[in-house]
Amino acid sequence: MKKLLLFSLSFALLIILSAQESPPVLEFNNQSMIDNDDFILKQDYDMIWDYSESIWEHTRNVVYDYNEFNKPIEKYESWTDGRGPYKRTDLYYDNATNQYLEEERAYLYSDSAWVKDSKSLYYYDANNKRIQKIWQTHDGEQYVNEIKNDYAYDVNDNKIWSMMYYWEDGAWAENQEFDYQYDENGYLYKIESIAWVDEEWIKWQKSIYAYDTSNLLLSIESSKWDVETSGWLHPHHKQLYTYDQDNNRIIFIIQGWNEFDEFWYNQYKTTYYYLPVGNEVEKHVKSGINKSIENFETTEDEIIIDPGREGKVLTGIEVLLDSVLHTSVGDLEITLTHNGISVTIVSQTDNDGDNFITTKLSDQGVDTLAKGIAPFYGIYKPENSLSAFLETEPAGTWTLSIYDGVEGNTGTLKSWGLNLIYASGVSAIEDVDFNKSDLVVYPNPASSVCNLQPAVFSLQSSIVQVYDLNGKKLLEQHFPKGTSTPEIDVSELKNGIYFCKISSGRYSTTQKLIIQK
Questions:
Q1: Distance in angstroms (rounded) separating the CA atoms of residues 378 and 359
Q2: Average of pLDDT values for 477-483?
Q3: 31 φ, ψ to 5°?
Q4: Rounded distance, CA 190 to CA 208, Å?
Q5: Based on the domain organization, do 210 and 73 belong to the same domain?
Q6: E strand or H helix at 358
Q7: Which residues are registered as beta bridge partners of 301?
Q8: What is the pLDDT of residue 457?
Q9: DSSP type of residue 18
Q10: Per residue in 51-84, pLDDT tens?
Q11: Which of 244, 386, 459, 514 lies 20 to 30 Å from 265, alpha-carbon distance?
């Protein structure tokens, strides 16, 4: 999954790189970038650093779609300033060979038509290693060659060489050659390149890779070769990476070096949002509301969820504020209510900017609204956790309440929604002859050890699995037939709410488990 980040370096990044004297080596070939089969990248948000205000400004939202094999097949990009769709990338995936065949991109023009823009063609050897990539652009009539890359590998399948060509005068012309170097553990730590300049090959650039103690990539620093001094200059470009507790990359930042004042300055940032594999997202959006938001009054709107979700376990809630228009969002307090539970999700953000536009409030968000600048786009943590709703049934009325507590500015609630997230891997499977009282976890809340009723465990083999609120499996324990005192060690779990799935024979049930120490 993490290899998706390769093609999320999008148009804004290309603008930055093209403005530099020579672009950095953006090569990601190391063992810390392997696929994570437990999560898929669903969205990312591109931001540009505003030097005048010293803040990050959202520029684009990117959404990914996958096939049944959890391979990305479409990337949809849209501007976050109201201009709407920008680009669609279709990825053609061959399930038999586990390869991407080609990639096409297109712009959405004012006449609402997708127009061909560019295409990437991939070629592989007998061992399914990519040995060539050709990038073409569309001139309005046909695709024409632009750039080609050839690759070579060692016996350990590490990329050790590549050559970049430009299409010139009807032929491929060599432009830049890359040499890859690995440490004793097989991790890429340096790339050096030479370039064809003025009819000769000269040293050009190097990139140094740094990792943390878990071998996750932390940074890449790129330096240029100084012909006059025959030495490497100070690194001019740096890429920084931040990860969550599941080793998913959640922040990517590009910085440049100011050689006059000697400091690193921000240029570009991407934040990433993931979902566990197997989760089902049920989206409920209500638009065209147009309810006014007045001073010292509460504006309410409801979404009603029908019943009929038997066998599903709710593992996540996301609130979609798309859109709440108000000329000073810091005046607002927003609350979500369902089944007698009320959670304040926005509370006077100390921000006098305008509007919530395509804003998602999720417990998995990286930053709170207090760290953002209106207008708000992208994913943020709510003021208070939404996990309280996971103890309720999703069916029924969900109410969004907006209170304007400051005089002078008003607004409009135009649309909002909910994402209800279910983990299909922990669904409860019931039977009319099944007595749930035979499968009970106690004590609940628990601190270090959970016990289970021994009745069923003494008759047949059983499995107990514990999941977190995101549907990620944390524990699994097998009990053979005849177990008289089944128990689970939960001492390593932190305080919070979990799901405990107990499977015995053809029966299964899922219970909420509270850890409290």
A1: 5
A2: 76
A3: -75, -10
A4: 5
A5: yes
A6: strand 356-362
A7: 400
A8: 62
A9: H
A10: 888 888 878 888 888 876 777 888 888 887 767 7
A11: 244
Q: Judge if the upstream peptide bond of residue 375 is cis by omega within 30 degrees of 0.
A: yes
User: Which amino acid, 351?
Assistant: N
**432-458 burial code (b ≥16 CB/10 A, e <16):** eebeeebbebeeeebeeebebebebbe
Q: What angle do CA 141, 146, 149 make, to 5 degrees?
A: 140
pTM confidence score: 0.66
Give the chain's domain count: 3
E strand or H helix at 64: strand 55-66
Question: In this structure, are 164 and 43 located in the same domain?
Answer: yes
Residue pair 449/335 in contact (Cβ under 8 Å)? The answer is no
- Domain assignment of residue 476, given as a range: 433-515
Q: How many C-beta neighbours within 10 Å does residue 492 have?
A: 9
Tens digit of each residue's pLDDT (9 = 90 or more) over 127-185: 888 899 999 999 989 999 999 999 999 998 899 999 999 999 999 999 999 999 999 88
Same domain, 80 and 171: yes
* pLDDT tens figures, 333-344: 999 999 899 999
Q: Residue 244 has which token pair?
A: 């969550």
Q: Which two tokens stand for residue 429?
A: 């499977």
Q: What is the DSSP string of 222-234?
A: EEEEETTTTEEPP
CA distance 49 to 69: 36
Cβ-based burial of 304 (10 A; exposed 0-12, middle 13-18, buried ≥19)? exposed
DSSP 494: P
Residue 258 lies in a domain: yes
367 exposure class (CB count in 10 Å sphere: 0-12, 13-18, 19+) = middle
pLDDT band at 6 (very low <50, low <70, confident <90, very high): very low
Query: Residues 177, 30: one domain?
Result: yes
Residue 68 and residue 83: Cα distance in Å, rounded?
32
Q: Are residues 374 and 353 in the same domain?
A: yes
Tell me the residue type at 303. Answer: I
